[in-house]
UniProtKB/TrEMBL annotation, chains A, B, C, D:
Residues 138-269 form the GFO/IDH/MocA-like oxidoreductase domain. Pfam families: GFO_IDH_MocA, GFO_IDH_MocA_C3. Residues 11-127 form the Gfo/Idh/MocA-like oxidoreductase N-terminal domain. The lineage of its organism: Bacteria, Pseudomonadati, Pseudomonadota, Alphaproteobacteria, Sphingomonadales. InterPro entries: Gfo/Idh/MocA-like_OxRdtase_N, Gfo/Idh/MocA_oxidoreduct, GFO_IDH_MocA-like_dom, NAD(P)-bd_dom_sf. This is Oxidoreductase. GO terms for molecular function: nucleotide binding.
C-alpha cells in the first residue's frame, strides 16, 4: 500500500475492503514520507518492519527482488492525486497490478501515460470508482441495459457534500488541504474529487455517453484555489438530457450521491446513503422498491451481495466488490478477455479513468467558455 | 368562476380551497363555452341557474348590474392560459377582484396589461402560486430571511412530473391538449406550466434574485409543439448558484416539487409531496425535522395551519391559505398598505406574475442562444 | 353544531370538513355554555345571532319550529364525551340527523341508548371514526377483502401520541382537562380517546373480529385519574394474532396511527402521518408503494380522492369524506338500504360505536383481571 | 470455526466480520460432519488441509497439541443451537476463547453449564448479540443512560421477518429445517431465534430489567413444531411498560428489528434496516436525526465507526465491532476487570446469555399459563 498512514481516511477503507472476503492480505507498505509516521503505521497494522519501506520506489525494488511467491501481487495507491501517475507507472512497470484511487491523475495526459504503461505491462489497473461496486447500482445498470424503462430520456445525478463549507483547508485539515491544492489535486477541486464519481455513475448506469456539456464552476469559500461547487447541463448521445450537480459546500450534507434515470415508461432512483433500496417508478403501475437480497434481482446483482435481505451492506462491502473482482481478474491471468460489464470480475479501470479525466478537462474548458455547449 | 366546468381539474380545487375556511361562497359562474356543459356544471354546484352565465362578459355585465351586496366580490379565473389576460383585464375593469391561475398570461406583454389594469382599478389581483401557501414553505422562507443558515450559496429546485411521457395530448386528454398548444398555453409548455412554479418558489424562499440563467429546453415526445422538459443553471445576485429542473416526462413521477437551499452553516429541504416536514441540516449539529404544528415554528407559519401536529394538511389547505389571505386583503379595503411577505394576508400577485413571465421569456431566449448566460 | 366554540380543536375541523365539498352549510350552533363565548363564537363564524342558541335543547326546539326548508338538517356533536348520549338522543328524537364525535358515549349502556334512539327515529347517526375516511385506508380494506394477501395472520396497530406526557391537564389545558376526567371522558382515558380509533381501524381493515384480548392499562403521569397508556394482545376469530398499542405519553410523538396487516403471501402498512402512500410487501416480488391517485387503485378508493397524484390530501379531506357520505345517505332518504362497506355513502355509525364501546368495557375488565384472556 | 460450511449463512458473516479489522485470521475449522463438504469448505477458504478437522473434538485436541503461538486462540461456534453447549464447554475446557452464536443454548440449564465452564476456565465467552454492535445502538444506550429523555416510560421492540411464511422447513431449506426442530433449536422457534435478540436489545438500550411478562406464542404454519410468532406485554422494574413483537411469518418483511424508547421528555427510534440514523423526538423542540459519524455522538459510539459520515456501514461492520472487542479483551489478558457497557472492548457474553435463556423459559411458561403475568 502506498499512502494511507495514520490519520488518512481512504487507506483504512481500502484495507478493510481488501480484507473482507479473504482475497487479500496486506504484506508491505510505504505509508508516509515521514519516517516515524511510516514506521508507526506499519507497526499498528502488524506488518513485518522489513516490509515497511521508506519510499514507494524502495518498496517496488525490494519486493521485486523477492521470490515470486513471497512478493506482493499488487499495489494499492491511496495517496493524493499527484502521485497516482508516477506511482502507477512505476508499479506497472515493475510488474505489479495496481488498484488506484480516483481521480486517475492530475490531467488527461497523465492518465494516458498510465494507460500506456498498463497496456505495455499486461498488468491489471483497477480504479476505485467505488460506487459502481454497490449491488443495486449493478441492478440499476442491468435494468436500464435490458430496456425495462424504454429509451432513456433523463439522467440526473448529484453528489452533495458539505464538509468544505468552511476554510478548513487553511486550518490544518489534511484531507481538505491537499484536495484544494492544484499541485496535488489536479485541475479540478470538487470536480475531480466527487464530480468524477457522479459523471462515472451517470454514464455507467445509463449506458449512454455525454456528447456535450455546459458547466458552471464556482469557488464559494474565499481564498480557495480550486472549485468547490459544480453545476452542469448534459446532452447525451441519442437525445437524453441530464443535469449533474456536485458540491462540497452544501453545509450539513454528508455524502449525498444520488442518481435518477427516466425512460419512456418509468424511472429509477438510487441513493448512496440508503444503498440497499432501488426505487422504480412506473407510468402505469405502482412504484416498486427493489431491495438488496430481495426478490427480483439480476444474477449480476446477486453475486455482489453477502448478507440475506434486511441485513444492510454498506460502503466497505461495495468497495470489497471491487477488490474481489480485482483478485479474480488477476487470478484469471494475463490474456484473459476483458470481462463484460456486470461480470463478476468487472472492475472500473483504464477506460473509466481516461473517460473521467477527459470529462474533467472538457468541464474546465466549458467553465471558461462563453459558449453554451462544449463537446465531450 | 370562469372555467372549471365538468371534467376540469383545477376549478374543483379552487372551489374546495375557497370553501374551506368559510370566507368565500360560489355565487355565479361561466364554466364552459358549451351551453349544456355550462348549465350542468352550474346545477351540479347548486348555483341559481340565473347566475350561470353563457359567457364571461355576460357574467361581468350582469353581476355589475346587481346591488353591491348581492353581486360577486371576486372572480376566479381557472381557464387555459390564453384567457387569463382578457378575462383579468375585463374583470378588474368591471370592478371585481381577481384570483387568477398561473402562469399569469401568454407572455410578458399580456402580463403587463394585467398589471396596468390592476393598478388602474384599485382591485386585488392574486395569482395561484399555490405552493407558496404551504405553511412549511413560509417556515423555510422565514428561516432564510432571518439568517439561520448564513449567506445563501446554493439553491436547487426541481419539479418532476411524468404524466406527459406519452403523446396523450393527441389522444383526447383535455388537460394535456391545451397545455401543449402554443395558442392556449403561451410561450412555454412545461416551462410555463410548472417551471414558473419552480422559479417562483426558488426566489420566494431564498429571498434572492436570479441575475442570469443558462437553459436547455427539450421536447422529448415527437410531434409536441412546446417543451416538455426544462433544465437550467442559475446565477443569483450575491453569488449564489442554482439549478432548476422541471419536467413532465419523468415517467412515474407524480408532482415532485422539491426545494433545497444551503447557506454557510446549514441548509433546508422541502418536498411538496410530504409537505408537513421541513428538514434542516447543520454543519455542526444533528439534522432537525421541523414539523407542521410542531415546536419551533415562526408565527407566520403557525397562522397558516389548521390542524394539530400529526394531522396532515395538504394541497387544498395550502391553496386555502391563498384564498383566506385574498379575502383578508379585500376586507382590508382599498388603500391598505401592501402586506409584507409572511403577513397573514400576503398573496402572490402582480409582481410575482410579472417576474415569472419575464423569466419565461428570458428562458426561451436562453434556450435559443449559443451564449452561455442570458441576463434575467 | 354543539360545542366547538372558541379554543376548541375538533369543532373547527368539523366545520372545514363539512364545508369542503359544498354539501353542508353551518346554520346554527350552541357552541358554549358560557354565553359571551357562545355569542363570540357564533359571530366569528358569521352566523345569524338568532340561531346562536344558549343551550342545545333551545337549539333543537327552535330549529324544529322552523319550516322544514329553513331548519337545520343535522347536528354535529363535538362536545366532551359525557354529552354525546344526551345530545344524540335528544337530536335524533327531535328528528335531526347526527354526526357525533367518538367515542360514542361514556359507556356501553349509553351507546345502546343512542342506538335505540337512532333506530326509533329513522335518522342517520354517523360517528367520526375519521381515519376510516382516508382513501388509502379504503384501499387497504378493499385489498384485504378481495384476498390479495391470502388468509390474514397478523394485525398490528399502534396509535402513539406524546402530548399528555406532562400533567398539562392540571395546568389549564382544556383539551387535556376533560379527556382525563372520568365524569366527562368516560371509562377510558387514552383507551377511549385513541384506543378506540386503533381498534376500529384494525377490525375495519382486516375484516376480522377480535375474539379475546389481554390488556395492560397504565397511568404514567402521577395524579391522573384515567389511563394514559394502553397495551394489549389480541386474538382474532380465525386465528390471526394482533397487538394494539395506544399511548399519549410517548413524548415527542405527534399523531402516529399506524396499521400493519400480514397474510400468507404479503402484507400492508399504512401510516396516518404520511397517508398518501400504502406500502405493500410481498413474499415473492418487490414491495410496492400504492399512492393516492396513482395507478392500481380500487374504485372505492378513487371516489374518495379530490386531487391528482402527488398533490397531497390530508386529515380534513379524510374527514370530509365522512361528511360527504353522510350527506349522500341523508339525501338517499329514509328506508334506503344500508350502504355496503366501501360504498360512496358508507360512514361509520351505530354498529361501529357499539362495537368500540364494547371493546372499551372489555379492555377495562381485562386490565382489572388476573386472567390472561378476556372474551370480547 | 465450528460449522459454517458450504451453504450456511452465518458462518460466512462471522468470517467477514472477523477479517474486517485484521484482528483475526481463520486458521482451522470443522465445518461439517459430511467429510467431503468439510474438505471443500476448508479448501474454498484457503485453509491448510491439515487443519480442516473431521470433528470439533479432533480440532480441539490437535490444536491444543500445537505450540502456543501456532495454535488457534479462539473458536467461533456457528452451528445449530444444540451444539452450542457441548462445543462451548469443550472449547473453554480446552483453553480456547469462544465466540458463540445466539441463542446461548437449548435451555437455561445448558446455558448455566456454559457459564460454569467459562468461569472455571478463565477464558472469554462472547455471544453474538450482533445488533448491540451497531454504533447507533450504542448511541441510543448511552443517551438513555445519561438521562437525555428523563425516566423511561415506554419500551417497544419488534423483530419482523417473513421468510418462514410458507412451510419451507419441509421443502429442503436447511436454515429453516433446524430452526423449526426442537431437538436442534431448543425451546423456542421464533422466540429463540429472534425473540432473544429483541429482548436483549430492549434491556440493553433501556438499561431496565423486565420484571414480568405476558406472552402469546403461535404457530401459524400448519405442521410446524415450534412457534413462528411471538407477542408479549412487558412490565419493567420502575414502572416502564413494553411490548415485544417477534415474528417470522410477516410475509414480505425482511429483517425488521426496530426499537423505540420513550421517557418523560422525549424518545428515540432505531431501525436495523436503516442503521445509520437514530431518530430523537422531543416534547419541546424539533426532532433530530443523529447520524453515524455525524455531529453530536458519544465517544463510545465514535470508536465503533469506520467510515466518514454518509458512507453507510452495515451488519458486517456491527458484527466486526464484536470481534474487535473480543480480540481486545483477549489481548487484555486474564484477570483484567470486566469492561463496562460502552467500553471499547465490551461484548455481550455470559450474563447476556443467561438472561436471554431465562427469558425464553419464562416466556414458554407464560404462554402455557392462564395467568396474566409471569415473573421474569
Amino acid at each position: 500500500m502506498a499512502g494511507g498512514g495514520e490519520g488518512a481516511f481512504i487507506g483504512a477503507i481500502h484495507r478493510a475492503a481488501a480484507a473482507l472476503d479473504g482475497d487479500w492480505q496486506l504484506a508491505a507498505g510505504a505509508f508516509s514520507s515521514d519516517a516515524a509516521r511510516n514506521a508507526r503505521s506499519g507497526e499498528a497494522l502488524g506488518l513485518d518492519a522489513a516490509r515497511v519501506y521508506p519510499t514507494f520506489d524502495a518498496m517496488l525494488a525490494a519486493e521485486r527482488a523477492l521470490p515470486a511467491d513471497a512478493r506482493i501481487d499488487a499495489v494499492a495507491i491511496v495517496t493524493p492525486n499527484h502521485l497516482h501517475m508516477p506511482m502507477s507507472v512505476a508499479a506497472l512497470g515493475a510488474g505489479f497490478h495496481v488498484m488506484c484511487e480516483k481521480p486517475m491523475a492530475l490531467d488527461l495526459a497523465e492518465a494516458e501515460a498510465i494507460a500506456a504503461a498498463a497496456a505495455a505491462s499486461g498488468r491489471q489497473f483497477a480504479l476505485a470508482f467505488t460506487y459502481s461496486g454497490y449491488p443495486l447500482v449493478e441492478e440499476a445498470r442491468a435494468r436500464v441495459a435490458r430496456g425495462d424503462f424504454g429509451a432513456i430520456r433523463l439522467v440526473q445525478v448529484e453528489y452533495s457534500q458539505g464538509w468544505l463549507s468552511r476554510p478548513i483547508d487553511r486550518d490544518g485539515n489534511r484531507q481538505a488541504e491537499w484536495r484544494t491544492d492544484p499541485a496535488r489535486a489536479g485541475l479540478g477541486g470538487c470536480l475531480g474529487d466527487i464530480g468524477t464519481h457522479a459523471f462515472h455513475l451517470a454514464e455507467h448506469v445509463s449506458g449512454l455517453r455525454v456528447e456535450s456539456l455546459c458547466a458552471d464552476l464556482t469557488t464559494h469559500v474565499a481564498g480557495r484555489q480550486l472549485d468547490d461547487d459544480v453545476s452542469m447541463l448534459l446532452r447525451f448521445a441519442g437525445g437524453a438530457r441530464g443535469v449533474l450537480k456536485a458540491t462540497q459546500v452544501a453545509a450539513g450534507d454528508e455524502n449525498g450521491l444520488k442518481l435518477r434515470v427516466h425512460g419512456e415508461s418509468g424511472g429509477l432512483e438510487w441513493s448512496q446513503m440508503e444503498p440497499n433500496t432501488l426505487a422504480l417508478r412506473w407510468l402505469d403501475r405502482p412504484a416498486e422498491l427493489v431491495r438488496a437480497a430481495g426478490p427480483g434481482l439480476a444474477d449480476t446483482t446477486a453475486h455482489r451481495l453477502r448478507t440475506p435481505s434486511g441485513h444492510p451492506e454498506g460502503y466497505i462491502e461495495a468497495f470489497a466488490n471491487l477488490y474481489r473482482a480485482f483478485a479474480a481478474r488477476i487470478r484469471a491471468g494475463e490474456g484473459t478477455p476483458e470481462p463484460a460489464l456486470g461480470a463478476a470480475d468487472w472492475t472500473p479501470g483504464v477506460a473509466d479513468g481516461l473517460r473521467t479525466m477527459h470529462f474533467v478537462e472538457r468541464t474546465i474548458a466549458s467553465a471558461a467558455s462563453e459558449s453554451k455547449w462544449t463537446a465531450v
